[in-house]
Description:
By secondary structure, the protein is of the alpha/beta class. Among the domains are: 16-120, 2-Layer Sandwich (Gyrase A, domain 2); 130-141 and 453-571, Isoleucyl-tRNA Synthetase, Domain 1, CATH 1.10.730.10; 199-276, no CATH class. The protein is built from 20 helices and 15 strands. The strands form four sheets. Strands 7-6-5-11-12 form a five-stranded parallel beta sheet, sandwiched between helices. The chain has a four-stranded antiparallel beta sheet with strand order 1-2-4-3. Strands 8-9-10 form a three-stranded antiparallel beta sheet. A hairpin with a 2-residue loop joins strand 13 and strand 14 (403-406). The structure holds one RNA strand.
Amino acid sequence: MESERRAFVSSSKDSPGLSTLSLMLTRLETLVMEAVRAAYVNEIGAEPPASFLEIRPSDRPQFGDYTSNIALLAASSTGTAPRDLGSRLAEAIRCQAKTDKNYPIDQVDVAGPGFINVFLRPAAIHEVLPAIFQSERPFGCSDLGEGKRLQVEFVSSNPTGPLTVGHGRQAVLGDVLARLYERIGYHIEREYYFNDEGRQIDLLAESLWARARQQSGHATELPEDGYQGDYLTQVATELLATLETVPETFDNTAREAFRHEAVTRMTDWIKDDLKQLGVEFDHWFSETTLHRSGEVEATLQRLKEKGGVYEKDGAQWLKAEEHGGAKDSVLIRSDGRPTYLMVDIAYHLDKHERGFERVLDIQGADHHAEQTCVKAALRLLGYPEEWLSYAVHQFVSLKEGGQVQKMSTRAGRFVTLRDLIAELGKDVVRYFMISRKPEAHLDFDLDLARAESSDNPATYIQYAFTRISSIFRKAEMLNPPKGSAEALSPLGEAEELQLIKTLDRFPQVIAHAALDFAPHALAEYGLNLSRAFHAYYDKHRILIDDAALQAARLTLLHAIRFVLGQCLEILGMDAPEEM
RNA sequence: GCGCCCGUAGCUCAGGGGACAGAGCAGCGGCCUUCUAAGCCGCCGGCCGCAGGUUCGAAUCCUGCCGGGCGUACCA
Length: 579
């Protein structure tokens, strides 16, 4: 199966409108395109290849603000284009700059192998700031999603135990992605799917019953393969407080009662874990409803009608391989019970019935085979390919004192999410969970996470926010100036112009982080912006005698503070006024 | 064996056709009478796993190896 990383259409190129500066540059692009074409056609007598010209923001301050790569090297070394193409283009742009006072270009240099470096007029760069304050939506938001209903399903751990550190990564990933999609105009619903019946739940119920028996002084043994974690003892203690007696045998009545107790109490436990992490769901979906409603059976019938099911060894199999699945898999066991896969397919049809225009499932890497089979089934039933996207993430290891420890629920030696949050706090946990690209393994550096200094990137970003807030307090300024482009003219320091250009990128960063399933890009951006601010703060004073310059700088800080605040909010971290 | 993901500085990772490969941590050296030093500046540190290929140009794309993780259940 192909990677789902690019499941949603990438927007960074498709939506120059997200950036004030690149919008400005559209004019330049047109001009340069025409110049290249004319020069090329004139010399060669043919149209230039489409890939010949590209204008993009330069992320290297030592070069231009924008860089045009016109493949001059190719031109000169292969003789397929005029040697002085670069100079001609530069000249054409300079001409335009002379005749048009509003032209955003300040200077054009012919540089290195095939590059023209374009420098914007500071006044053009300044225009970014008013745009930040005046945009109709909060800066950074867009309507790429056109209000479409998107369901994000994540965590979906069965209520058989507390959430682990591994679940924590998925919880943060899903929550941050949901927040990102909201910013780009999707209508989001967060769903948690849980299994509340079946063999594992029965085993949980019996384990709870056995624990309760033990707690009330009986020598009852845990069932074989039963759940052994300490949490069950706690749950049993809580339960006993509400119970007069524990039934002597685990009969059907007991099973029903203990199943209900176990599921309810464990689900509450999980909800609390998530709440401590700042994650809340709109909808908790119980697997049982699919069985009771007959949807499982109906789904099977639909698959059969499409000829996607066959019988082997007394079981019913899905012809997954024929439709792009990893391998054929059992839908109905030989004893007649549906498999998890069968129910999962029915679940996705249910999602479709509920009217979601897109569905994003976030899952760990261990579910890969399953995903290909669900996709195969949907393909078979004629659902559009892009309706369902899977976002897959790798696992988490904790690293301490240079030693990596692997998580293992079975071995009983797992670190619970709640312990981690208790030690580090929600903000640090969230930042570390999101700071790496999802498809890479995450080594959670406990030593670094414990640091309360700026070594800790989570703290570092929050401190930048705090410093700006502190300046506004000092200036007794509750409503900092928003500044017109003219009022911003004193901003001429390289650091100031660079900061503004960084701010200008923010909406594109959000779109990229959401659509390319790269929420870590936002964490990276927040860190970079903070770094740029801290350096600027150290080098240039804000509160000064020059009233005009101070006002302009306060406007810049106001914008930085806003964007940092947005970053923190999307990451689900606090934005502290004081530290 | 087959499928998916990952190999970039001592460590954790960005960058995913374009200029001399970037951060943080660790190490070394500087900077507080002025807006919070939870900060800043500098130095040190790289055959971008290996080998081919495509290209004017490859850390980036393709192929094959090597190394690590996950999956390959009538578990969920």
